[in-house]
Amino acid sequence: MKPILAGRLKFASETEAAMTARAVPNRRATRVFDVPVVVDEERCITGCHICVESCPVDCLAIDPASGKSHMKYDDCWYCLACEVDCPTNAITVKIPFLIR
Amino acid sequence: MDDILIETDVLVIGGGTAGTVAAIKAREAWPDGRVLLLEKANVKRSGAIALGMDGVNNAVIPGHATPEEYVKEITMANDGIVNQAAVLAYARESFGMIRELESWGVKFQKTASGDYDVKKVHHKGSYVLPMPEGYDIKKILTRVIRQRGVRVENRVMATRILLDGGRAAGALGFNVRTGAFVVIRARAVILACGACGRLGLPASGYLMGTYENPANAGDGYAMAYHAGAELTNIECFQVNPLLKDYNGPACAYVSGPYGGYTVNARGHRFMLSDYWSGQMMWEFYRELNSANGPVFLKMDHLAPETIGEIEQILHTTERPSRGRFHAGRGKSYQTDLVEMSVSEIGLCSGHSASGVWVNERGETTVPGLYAAGDMASVPHGYMLGAFTYGKICGRNAVAYAQSVGAAAIDDGQVKAERLRVLGPLSRADGIPPHQFEYKLRRQVNDYLQPPKSGHRLERGLEYFLRAREELAQVGAADPHELMRAAEVDFIRDCAEMAARASLFRTESRWGLYHHRLDYPEMDDQNWFVHVNLKKNAAGEMEVFKRPVEPYVVPLDAEELRTYHRLRIAPLAA
């Protein structure tokens, strides 16, 4: 690695600058989203996973810590399958913020 | 993790509209045969009709329409580029399909005298049959699947067709919950994977805010392509008039028969028919982008009871969260016009004409491989087209499977696919699939959204080829992300097909669906043909002309232009 000179970047060429570390896996930052599927944990039955099976995009999962359903992946199509199929009316689907 | 090996006689990939009926019909035709239905979601809530459907858009019911009249209507709506034999096969069998669905418990609207309550939405004939209680149709189909003894494997995603010397021999894929690699050997394969609904990016920027069920990512188009099958009319994109932002149907097919219609911002009607065709979308697009835009669906002139009936249908079937969307903005069909917009592009024969080439027997150009529904080439099929071609494919796939021996498994193909499709799991901190997808689909909007131009399409193609290299950087932290990684690979394949087919057809046709700014006229002299594409022996994407088969229902030149006369002359100022 060449020393960084005043007024110059550390690379010999723009191509070198563009390619260096480009393919290095680097998942670091996370961004938190407000997600559409809201689960009322009081009503959600531990052991039931009807909503998880209903979801056409597989975005729901049972939280191993609480035993309750939650929206694990930000893939919701706001189709209402989980809300309609929930036997205890524990689920409310909000229209995603970007759309509502 | 060990591979999972499954043996079957007939494999159906996709448990939505077409696939469920294909599996039911295959079992009925071969009670001793094994039928496996593969679904990457769960058949009870999967596919385009996961939450039901509000009506049949193309019912050919004796006394209301003849199969020949229907073939003429669809030929006009597609500017003549149709394989009429395949449309006629649908038209002849579709009424039997309706009767069969009724015997399974599906309810269609009847008049007081007991006749089917058929409505007119198309430009010429009457083909729309409401089903206001259509919300549970998928649950009914799931019950029939169980009764017939179909084996169902949910949450398994197919990624490639297994081939034995050019013949379909099964499929390869993985379990989207466990990541286990799955090898399925079959004597015949039916693809029923739905549209490519995640091609363009919705204007909202919300990746899954698509018109189609976003699970329909073009899986079937890409798998058929890699199996060597021909695809057709890919440049005839799906572009729909939808509720702005919500991006679902408004839906003029439901409200139209009650008296609703599309208007511009001055409250004036500007086209004669709300039936979705390329020409209709062209008139819609022009009005939307004129001084008279935006465009609205108008219902507020109807009686409150009538609007209530429309709301009851629209807010319980197909996309039941529509009512919640409107209410959240303080809007109501009773008092407000419903703002509409133009959707992002997709590939879908169900509404347009893009698909894997099939003939009137549902056969693709690969022996033992069948295709049905939104991904097969029979145009404007909608739900009933998917059911009916599911039935046709189920029957014919069984006849084929009974005529051939067991296929051999190509270990080389299995090994290569395991390495390819599971690859992202070895790069857990690689580019997340949703990041790759956002960029890919944004470029689809930038370069492929019509009106199209050659220069823009070429730039798009350049990016889609570069995106193939970028795919090697996509990583998956778990099997769910692996599913998304496999899907973005399919979406990229579809984007490349869409760019190449659009570049090849140097004319304009199908209104907005293929409007080329650099070739604005329709050119029957050179382009009264299908544009087909396939993967050639060298592994390259080859685009070529395929002649339109001689018509079985003749139309004269004047009739062929019927759909070009949709515009209502503006009122004098």
What key phrases describe this protein's structure?
heterodimer, A: about 100 residues, alpha+beta, two-stranded antiparallel ribbon, 3 helices, about 10% strand, elongated, B: about 575 residues, alpha/beta, 5-stranded parallel β-sheet, 16 helices, about 15% strand
List the helices and strands and how they pair.
The complex is a heterodimer of chains A (100) and B (573).
Chain A (H helix, E strand, L loop, with lengths): L13 H6 L17 E3 L10 H5 L5 E3 L6 E3 L9 H5 L5 E3 L7
Antiparallel strand pairs in A: 1-4, 2-3
Chain B lengths: L3 E4 L2 E4 L3 H13 L5 E5 L15 E2 L10 H11 L6 H21 L24 E2 L6 H12 L2 E4 L1 E9 L2 E9 L5 E5 L2 E4 L27 H8 L4 E2 L8 E3 L8 H4 L5 E4 L13 H11 L6 E4 L5 H11 L7 H7 L9 E5 L12 E2 L12 E3 L10 H22 L7 H12 L10 H16 L5 H18 L7 H26 L19 H4 L1 E7 L5 E7 L9 H4 L13
Parallel strand pairs in B: 1-9, 2-3, 2-10, 3-6, 10-17
Antiparallel strand pairs in B: 4-5, 7-8, 8-9, 11-16, 11-18, 12-15, 13-14, 14-15, 18-19
Helix pairs in contact in B: 1-4, 1-10, 2-3, 3-10, 5-14, 12-13, 12-14, 13-14
Number of helices of chain A: 3
Share of helix of chain B, binned: 25-40%
User: How would the global form of chain A be characterised?
Assistant: elongated
The whole-angstrom Rg of chain A is 23 Å
Low-confidence stretches of chain B: none
Query: What would you call the quaternary organization?
Result: heterodimer
Number of strands of chain B: 19
Quote the average pLDDT of chain B.
96
Report low-confidence residues of chain A grouped into runs of 5 or more: none
**First-to-last CA distance of chain B:** 73 Å
Biggest beta sheet summary of chain A: 2 strands, antiparallel
Give the spatial strand order of the biggest sheet of chain B. 6-3-2-10-17
Q: Describe the largest sheet of chain B.
A: 5 strands, parallel
